[in-house]
Design a protein that fits this description.
alpha/beta; Rossmann fold; two-stranded antiparallel sheet; 10 helices; 9 strands; 20% strand; binds S-adenosylmethionine
């Protein structure tokens, strides 16, 4: 099979049902930037832009597996939130997502007990620890090691592993939690449906933990990705919480399909 045909196959795996691939003449990787810049127009050299956009996304995933994508690196270096995080001492630009959400929704408060799932490199935990103060407690969980942070207790391990959940529960000592935050995201495989399903699985684990451990007026903030199953998950959250909101902070990249669901007030029949 020719290289063109292999590429066309991988594109069609992502864009199934979007458009036929017959006019993909711009399969060269360098075309991606041009396609992105021309996103508002309907076509690039007669090719449907959505197809090329999806291909760009695929390319980013493929490259991320092996080495840093130069396009990603350039964008990262120019990103105002990345620059700001360096100046303000946050470990990643993700801090601004939580800061924005918290400024609007008041998820964190002084003295609160917070569990931060998918915490590495630690910027949400930094934000949470600063907000809850010395009287509060922040437990950060991640598969990856987290450099120590003042006011944060780190649990390293897979949150899908019962032993890891048990370690978190032991740290809570039977006390209920004010907020469960989950920014967990799987390693992207490049197969969008599979990635969305994996992300939802993590969100469901986080929800199950939140249902068990949140205070009645507690808050659950979770990252999800647009795709199949997310509406059902939101519905599921609606059965648990009095109020559910979808949030897309300005610091979450517009082209990213991630967004956050915030659930508040655990329904009394579940307590
Ligand atoms: C987007 S990053 C989180 C960024 C973090 N909120 C911050 O502000 O620095 C997603 C994290 O989820 C973690 N993760 C993914 N699956 C996980 C799992 N099963 N258990 C624990 N952590 C997981 C990843 O290791 C990754 O560090």
């Amino acid at each position: 099979m020719s290289a063109w045909a292999v590429r066309a196959r991988s594109i069609s795996a992502i864009t199934a049902g979007v458009s036929p691939l017959r006019r993909i003449r711009t399969t060269g990787l360098r075309r991606c930037a041009a396609a992105r810049n021309a996103r508002r127009s309907t076509a690039v050299r007669g090719c449907p832009i959505i197809t090329i956009g999806a291909f760009c996304q695929k390319r980013r995933y493929i490259i991320a597996k092996n080495r840093v994508d130069p396009l990603w690196l350039r964008r990262h270096q120019r990103d105002p939130y990345v620059r700001r995080s360096r100046v303000e001492g946050y470990r990643s630009r993700a801090a601004y997502k939580l800061l924005e959400i918290d400024a609007r929704e008041r998820v964190l408060r002084s003295g609160a007990r917070v569990v931060d799932l998918g915490a590495a490199p630690g910027s949400w935990s930094q934000v949470a620890a600063a907000r809850v103060g010395r009287q509060g407690q922040v437990i950060a969980v991640d598969l990856l090691p987290l450099q120590p942070l003042p006011g944060v207790t780190v649990v390293e391990g897979d949150f899908c592993d019962a032993a890891v959940v048990a370690r978190v529960e032991a740290l809570l000592g039977g006390e209920a939690v004010d907020a469960v935050l989950s920014d967990m995201a799987p390693n992207l495989s490049g197969v969008w449906d599979r990635d969305v399903a994996h992300a939802l699985e993590l969100a469901e684990r986080a929800l199950a933990f939140a249902v068990q451990h949140l205070k009645e007026n507690g808050a659950f903030l979770v990252k999800v990705f647009q795709g199949e199953g997310v509406d059902a998950f939101r519905h599921q959250m609606g059965r648990v919480f009095e109020l559910v909101k979808s949030l897309k902070p300005a610091s979450s990249r517009a082209e990213s399909r991630e967004f956050y669901l915030l659930g508040r007030g655990v329904r009394s029949q579940l307590l």
